[in-house]
């Protein structure tokens, strides 16, 4: 197969949802279609369940599962599908944001009864910032839920999407009869038996045909006709270009648990979803079909066994091919590195591969060379745009609890931050270190890992911060910025990239600061340029 065909056949995407909407179940059903697993229940949820906070081994065990399910690859109708898993737990949202830098499209799962939920809003916002093509799957149609039109409204209002339904439910919950597939023009009847549903479709391109009444009953047929007329009148017809530009989002309905509407989703997905796309580096736009390798690290996972301090760096290949034992330039270090055992992922296994293509993810064993965002090339001085940091939600001073181990503590903190476990801020005034995390759970993870992997001990101390804001003055030399720095000295810090950050202690002080120093721009994400 030619290099071009290899790129064309790849679909690398992520499934995102609020916890419990059905992401794991849908992933599993997709793998079943791909023949990558044989039975339901084979994919373990990588949900970090906060059962007992003191049960660190449990956290570690669950982190192990999340390595195994980091990338799930399979072949379906000759397409190579790479699903990048995203942790559902909100304390690990930062991981999900980073994974979204490595996907070419996403499927958003929404629970029919709950509609759009908080986590979905945040994740979709990130996708929209990056114009990632989105398909929405409304799940759990076998249960009583919201009206389909209300849900479509919800998607538009709360997520700011421009939706167009490609399938439409016939009834819902107790009365759920099936789905009309607008895209394929057929009806899929629901029997509640997940095995039976896979092939059970009836071609139906003219819904005015009276046979419809015989199949689903007169009143359901009338209702479906009315609904489809409304869909036609209200929503634009599907336009692949708009979808690819992130300007239109097709919506499917179904039930992952019952394997219903999933094949339709997958068949449409492989047809319309993008193959690996060009990616912007700081220097230039890189096309996927360029011959030379470029790629970037979007995730680092530490080994769970403290005796083996190596880590697995996940690299998304943007262009060219990645070959085993070939030297590649680690641009930030200016060093050539060779990898004798790059891992590729297939279903739930990882195995050593000789060659990988754009869209693929390779796992590289690393002894501390990599940090998130690093770029690999064949010699070109190229840097993929940094992976954004968002303002953490929780902040604490980190103190050394064992003065004999301060070297270990610093090394540990450094490496954990490289992995993206949390963010480190160093106060300008006194050099004290503040850790910022998305969820409280990370503080426990950090303390535990510092002790078990680095032999260092730490304690925390509260540091009340409302939001971290990245500072971007219009003019570094003007009086206003100088005054801002002087007056706000106590609240200023540097992040790991030496960018200036203002740690606002309350919403009120943030507003006052913005009013008083209008030429000093404050951003909630590190990627504002
Ligand atoms: P997540 O990864 O998004 O967090 O969700 P997950 O797939 O784990 O699904 C959450 C719960 O919703 C699970 O039930 C799952 O069985 C159920 N579910 C998923 N899809 C459907 C569907 O189409 N219809 C119905 N009725 N339920 C669905 P659970 O009881 O929490 O877990 P389990 O004991 O079934 O594993």
Description:
With 529 residues, this protein is an alpha+beta fold. The chain has three domains: 3-169 and 236-272, P-loop containing nucleotide triphosphate hydrolases (Rossmann fold, 3-Layer(aba) Sandwich); 279-377, Elongation Factor Tu (Ef-tu), domain 3; 394-528, 2-Layer Sandwich (Alpha-Beta Plaits). Helix content is 28%, strand content 28%. It has an eight-stranded antiparallel sheet. Strands 2-3-1-4-5-11-6 form a seven-stranded mixed sheet, sandwiched between helices. Strands 18-17-23-14-15-22 form a six-stranded antiparallel sheet. Helix 11 (406-419) packs across helix 12 (441-454). The protein is globular and about 80 Å long. The structure holds guanosine-5',3'-tetraphosphate.
CATH topology assignment of the largest domain: Rossmann fold
Based on Cα principal axes, name the global outline: globular
Low-confidence runs of at least 5 consecutive residues: 45-55, 195-199
Q: How widely separated are the two ends?
A: 40 Å
How would you concisely characterize the structure shown here?
With 529 residues, this protein is an alpha+beta fold. The strands form seven sheets. Strands 27-24-26-25-29-30-28-31 form an eight-stranded antiparallel beta sheet. A seven-stranded mixed beta sheet has the order 2-3-1-4-5-11-6, sandwiched between helices. It binds guanosine-5',3'-tetraphosphate (G4P).
